[in-house]
Design goal:
- The chain is α+β, with helices and mostly antiparallel strands.
- The chain has 10 helices and 19 strands.
- The protein has 3 domains: 69 residues, Uridine Diphospho-n-acetylenolpyruvylglucosamine Reductase, domain 2; 151 residues, Uridine Diphospho-n-acetylenolpyruvylglucosamine Reductase, domain 3 (2-Layer Sandwich), CATH 3.30.465.10; 126 residues, Uridine Diphospho-n-acetylenolpyruvylglucosamine Reductase, domain 1, CATH 3.90.78.
- The strands form 6 sheets. Strands 6, 7, 8, 11, 12 and 13 form a 6-stranded antiparallel β-sheet that branches. A 4-stranded mixed β-sheet has the order 1-2-5-3, covered by helices on one side. A 3-stranded antiparallel β-sheet has the order 14-16-15.
- The N terminus is likely disordered.
Length: 372
């Protein structure tokens, strides 16, 4: 397709390789890419795409997406809306943040400002606008707990709307935005944070970090952030272009939440391993409403995929420090990622009867993310 005229006021490029825009570093070309820094530019770009009958994909920081080797046959829209505005609301402070702000930069800002609520979400890659989509979380905390409102553009009407957290229908690593990926464009997120809120440490990794440093005393917002970053870096879970072990999508699979009967199948599968594992040794915990959350990383390793496992003779494999992360060691292809993912899913299903759900979005693939 020949591009006759680009959207007004946007930074527009045609035939753009997508791999450099993702942390896993794969993907062919987008027919076009538009950087947009205001709601006016977003609406203009969307109208332009409609005139040219092009599909549109909204890209944040590229840390939770796998583009097909064929690329994307439409427009990739890259919102870069900036700005942080604060106002008081009772005992809390409301921060209205542009969707294009870097997530971890805002977390750092909140910690330095002695505002509790985000410290355990340090080191997660991506943008503020992407955070509600996945309901990002780590170490027992998720972003839904501090979201006050989300401002969006409804793609069906091109109108700007404000919605509260309840409307967003947040759940474990999901939201209305993830379930309706082609409906809304997030332009702004407002967070409710509390001054001098004491941090809460519940995960063993963080508790161990503090136990090894008794001189630090009780956890503070600053030290919790440092603990989270140290633990994540040790597992290659903080993106660094110079650290190949971080060239992935973070946690590639969601920790499954299982009914009692489904968990019984996991128990049976564990007993049938070559080195049997008893129920009390399975990393799992109650998650309310009679369900149990099980470690996906443990399921993967128990099914035979140890940390550092490569997919056949390719440069796609598991992180050597964390079995939950599929990474690109360099020169890997999206097709290989999908094949390796499927191999892991099939093995876990066969051994434990559990369907592992991937966290990233797969864009430009045929049905079920299988290239044919």
């Amino acid at each position: 397709m020949r591009i006759e005229r680009s959207p007004e006021n946007s930074k527009f490029m045609a035939n753009v390789p997508l791999a450099p825009y993702t942390t896993i570093g794969v993907g062919g070309q987008a027919r076009c890419l538009a950087r947009v820094s205001s709601t006016t530019e977003i609406i203009s770009a969307m109208q332009w795409a409609e005139e040219h009958k092009l599909p549109v994909f909204i890209l944040g920081g590229g840390s939770n997406v796998v583009f097909s080797d064929r690329g994307y046959p439409g427009m990739v829209l890259l919102p870069t809306l900036r700005g942080v505005v604060m106002k008081h609301s009772g005992s809390q402070l409301l921060f209205s943040v542009g969707a294009g702000e870097v997530w971890d930069a805002f977390v750092l800002y909140s910690v330095r400002s002695k505002l509790g609520g985000l410290e355990c979400l340090s080191g997660i890659p991506g943008t503020v606008g992407a955070a509600p989509v996945q309901n990002i979380g780590a170490y027992g905390h998720d972003v839904a707990s501090v979201i006050h409102t989300v401002r969006v553009i409804d793609r069906t009407t091109m109108k700007i709307e404000d919605h509260d957290a309840e409307w967003c229908e947040f759940s474990y690593r999901s939201s209305r935005f993830k379930r309706e990926p082609d409906r809304y464009i997030i332009t702004n997120v407002t967070f409710a944070l509390h001054p001098n809120q004491a941090p809460q440490i519940t995960y063993t990794d963080l508790q161990d970090w503090f136990d090894e440093r008794p001189q630090l005393g009780p956890p503070t917002l600053d030290t919790v952030r440092q603990a989270v970053l140290d633990v994540r870096i040790s597992k290659g879970m903080v993106y660094d272009e110079n650290n190949v072990y971080s060239h992935g999508c973070g946690s590639f699979f969601v920790n499954p939440t299982l009914s009692g009967d489904d968990f019984k199948r996991v128990i049976e599968g564990a007993k049938n391993l070559s080195n049997p594992v008893e129920e009390d040794r399975i990393p799992a915990h109650p998650a309310g409403d009679g369900v149990v959350k099980v470690s996906a990383a443990w399921l993967i390793e128990a099914a035979g995929f140890k940390r550092g496992t490569r997919y056949e003779s390719t440069n796609i494999g598991l992180n050597p420090y964390h079995a939950l992360a599929i990474i690109n060691y360099g020169g890997g292809a999206a097709r290989q990622i999908v094949e390796f993912m499927t191999e892991i899913q099939d093995a876990v299903k066969k051994q434990f009867g559990v369907d592992l759900t991937p966290e990233p979005s797969f864009i430009g693939f045929k049905e079920n993310a299988k290239e044919k």
